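Minimal example, chain plus NAI.
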Amino acid sequence: MARTIAVSGTASGIGRTLAGLLREQGDTVVGVDLRDADVCADLGGAEGRSHAVAQVLDLCGGTLDAVVACAGVSDFTELPVKVNYFGVAALMEGLRPALARAEAPRAAVVGSIAGTHPVDEEIVRACLAGDEPAALDAAAKAVAEGGGHKTYPSSKAALARWMRRASVTPEWAGEGIPLNAVAPGVVRTPMSAPLFEDEAMLKVMNEAVRMPLNGYAGPEVIAEALRWLVSPANTHMTGQVVYVDGGAEATLRGPDVF
Ligand code: NAI
């Protein structure tokens, strides 16, 4: 059965690969990105987010079979908080009513192994309170105090917590919409390319994200996991952060999280 699926981040990396896989299997993809997409919008700000939601709704005729939020940024500024948390939450919440109209709706977001790294709890708290100005103030403070490396992990930890909280509510589970996250380790995409060009950064990354199973992944590995999560086959998995990370999370957190 052909389905209509909104995917953000389709101009590059994981989102682009996922869009290709879905189109290959006959689905209609409505891609959202800054450029080179069906809907060009900046998910880092309120205006772009509203524009993205309105345009996707227009293009899909008000009903969506699935939404996958892949768009994201990784740097040491406040930007990850804007794009990775508020951009994703706004897109998912804005498109949820269109999912609720579908017969077998599905939703997924892309988190990160970085969500298990040390975070700035003030940023995470403000994100989960839906207070973007406070979250950006906390992020600016972290950056000014030398904690810029915490803004990306904080955005991804907050996103995972948002997803878990929302997944079991009447709006998501009650409407029959599974909502999950895939959390990659290191994936070879344009986002990670600069790391591979900097020996010192690569060393830091290899220590922070150990991947004993098959090493770095290609974007197709993450796209395949997302494809399954938003397939009709996924009737009962919800609220899960699925680490597709070559064993990084199991190495970092060990067996005692269960
Ligand atoms: P990428 O850089 O290849 O693709 C990200 C896409 O998001 C780009 O097309 C970009 O234009 C779009 N985007 C960025 N800011 C945007 C904005 N404000 N509005 C709309 N679109 C915007 O990166 P990749 O690797 O494909 O990343 C996809 C997701 O995977 C991200 O959420 C990232 O945080 C996550 N991730 C990536 C890892 C990696 O090693 N590459 C590891 C863990 C998580």
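The mean pLDDT is 97. The CA atoms of residues 86 and 168 lie 20 Å apart.
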